[in-house]
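Design review, sub-item: ligand-bound model
Attendees: FS, YL, KQ
YL presented the inputs for the iron/sulfur cluster complex:
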Amino acid sequence: MILAHNIYIHIPFCISKCNYCAFFSHACATPDWDLFTDKIITEIEHWHNLLGYVSVPTIFFGGGTPSLMPTYVFRKIMSALFKNFEITADAEITIEANPKTLDNKRLCEFSDAGVNRISIGVQSFNDEKLKFLGRIHNADDARRLIDDAMKHIKNVSADFIYGLPFDTAKTVIQTCDEINKIGLTHCSMYELTIEPDTPFGKMNLCMPSNESMAEMYMAIAKTLKLNRYEVSNYAKNGFECRHNQNIWDGAPYIGIGNGAAGRIFFDNIWYEEMGGGKMFKPLSNSERAIERIITGMRTCRGIKIDNEIKKIINLEFAKTNSDVIEFVGDDQIRATDAGMLILDSLIERLIK
Ligand code: SF4
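KQ shared the predicted structure:
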């Protein structure tokens, strides 16, 4: 049986690199889009040859900066997807956008071509902080794009970064107040992490203490008029990102583009893939169960303890640490609010 597969397409180009960025992306504002499109379409055809006319409930264009893409490129890729897969009638089609790269005209073109969800990289409503982060836009560029997007696109989300030097619960609350005022139905709030091979990694930044980070995290959940449904994601009911939710719940997905990875379910076996199938290796049941614990515990639903998960989970730890893990019924566990604050170490201790 072939399960429905979600699709992630990686657009690896950015106008310039942000100071904190360790993602796979190149500073290249004018790539050879025709060459790139041909490579993406070849990968789409490769997966069609393997999986057939598989059903696709969500498509996510991530980056890099997908909004740099000319709309004719987007249309060509979409038409290849429709030709090779059964894109469901209510498919969620997301594009990530940088406020400097999308005017109202192009936004409408993306919307006409099928985009029904946009995830805007706002990061901050403070110009000084945006400059510090190395973003190419200012706060008003972001406000303008959110405003335009809310007129033309059904689901509008924005990404923010908190925990910069000098951030406090008070500054984070100001950001959340503005999100509430705008009426966003979805946002992602990411804690700044310093990666070694980035400009920030080479600076000696004075970061907020762990206690201060925890205060900011709790202030976000308290202030936003949205529900937390994953460690960093908040939404009004019904506006959760279906693409990410499917993947966190363990559904298969195809990763397209050199910087993308996927999990393919084929002939009753799970495979890990990267680079358009150049790397394609089967996953054992226990590897797959570990992945499901790692992604599932990030969500507020948590994980169902099925037979495979039972073999590798430290149930004793789950039963004796009710401050950080709670049972929902007999066979489902999730992180408590306190558990969400130490999620990485919690997951490590949960796996035998
Ligand atoms: S826009 Fe995103 S992917 Fe590009 S450099 Fe900045 S953080 Fe990295």
